[in-house]
Task: inverse folding
């Protein structure tokens, strides 16, 4: 019996994987279905498997955060909507990498590679580890947060980065404001934490408490000799740059 863990936050993708696994000629068992980094870390500390199917972008962050915190000895088949070029590159080097939406045929090829590694000498398994590190380095360098989780009482929902006009830190909490002017309370507790997850070409820290999106800037005005007033989409009140950040902001906005 081959034990499998699925780390995936998209329900249709999980269902497809399970359907394909059920159609295999060998017995398999999905021992866990996990949709976030935190749960995966805790689960993998005490439970092992023969194979992990892992998405890269999860509900609360990047899947590589899991593998930095927990030592994984089994192969990982990455399943994500990423880059065809890299999928082919890792195919040719022997690592399984499924680009969404993946077909039954491509799933079978990935599975066949897993079986080869499972029955191969330890030196070849080391090659899998090295290739996994390589894909991590390539992906992490180019990967930025695409959405944030918002908790509301006993529920939670998501807000896409594309509709966020700016973030504001206030008294130990951080709010995201969207294009309609609505604000959303985030899990993150500091702007620095958020800033590290966003593309610096798209977001800029204009002062100690506000981080703004370039695409939603509607108008800039001089506020004082060394500061600017910024009108953001969907927000009535203007934001202001700090004196220490104004020069850097002028350079950033023109790139």
Result:
């Amino acid at each position: 019996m081959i034990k499998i863990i699925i780390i995936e936050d998209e329900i249709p993708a999980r269902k497809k994987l399970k359907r394909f696994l059920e159609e295999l000629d060998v017995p398999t068992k999905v021992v866990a279905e996990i949709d976030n980094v935190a749960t995966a870390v805790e689960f993998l500390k005490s439970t092992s498997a023969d194979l992990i199917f892992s998405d890269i972008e999860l509900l609360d962050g990047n899947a590589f955060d899991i593998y930095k915190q927990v030592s994984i000895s089994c192969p990982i088949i990455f399943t994500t909507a990423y880059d065809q070029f890299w999928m082919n590159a890792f195919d040719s080097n022997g690592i399984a990498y499924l680009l969404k939406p993946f077909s039954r045929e491509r799933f079978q090829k990935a599975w066949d590679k897993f079986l080869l590694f499972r029955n191969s000498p330890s030196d070849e398994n080391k090659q899998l580890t090295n290739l996994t590190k390589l894909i991590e380095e390539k992906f992490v360098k180019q990967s930025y947060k695409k959405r944030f989780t918002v908790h509301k009482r006993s529920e939670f929902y998501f807000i896409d980065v594309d509709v966020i006009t700016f973030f504001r830190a206030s008294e130990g909490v951080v709010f995201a404001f969207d294009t309609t002017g609505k604000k959303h309370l985030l899990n993150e507790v500091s702007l620095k934490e958020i800033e590290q997850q966003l593309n610096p070409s798209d977001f800029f820290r204009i002062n100690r408490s506000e981080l703004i999106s370039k695409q939603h800037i509607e108008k800039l005005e001089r506020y004082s000799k060394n500061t600017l007033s910024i009108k953001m989409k969907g927000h009535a009140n203007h934001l202001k740059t700090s004196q220490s950040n104004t020069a850097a902001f002028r350079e950033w906005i023109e790139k």
Notes: The two ends are 55 Å apart (CA to CA).
